[in-house]
Amino acid sequence: MKRLLILWLLLPLLSTAKVPVESDIKARIEDPASEQYYPNLWLRYEQADSTLTADDYHYLYYGYAYQPQYRPLETNPALDRFYETLARLNVDAPADTDLLAVIEAGTEALEADPFSPQVLNFLSFAHAQRGDTAQAAAYRDKMNLVLATIESSGDGLTEETPWHILMYAHAFDLLAAKNIPVRESSIISRTVEYIPRVKKDEKGVKGYYFDYGRIYWKKPEQGYTRTLVAIQQSQTVEKRQKIRDLALGLLCAAFALSGCERSEEEPLALLTLDKERIVFDNPAEGETAQAVLRIEADRRWSVGFIGNGHDCRVSVLSGEAGVHELRIETSETNTGRDLHRLGQLTVALDDGSANRTVDLQQRPQAARQTLLMYFCGTDLYSYYKNNLSDVAKALSRNILPLGRIVAFTQPAAGEGYVVEYRYDEAANACERDTLIRYTPLPGRTTDPAVMERILGDMAAAAPAERFGLHLASHAKGWLPASIENSSWLRSSARRADDLWRKIPGAAETRWFGHDRGRYMDISELAAAIDGSGVRFDYLLFDACFMSSVEALYDLRRAADYIVASPCEVMAHGFPYDTVIPSLFADDGARYDLAAACRNVYEYYNAVDSYKSGCATLTVCDELEGLATALHDINAGATKAVDATTLQSYDGMETHQFYDLEEYALALTADDARGQAFVQQMERCFPPEGRFHTAQFFSVYNNRMNDIRYYSGVTTYAPAETYRNEWQQTAWYAATKR
Question: What is the pTM of this model?
Answer without folding.
Answer: 0.63
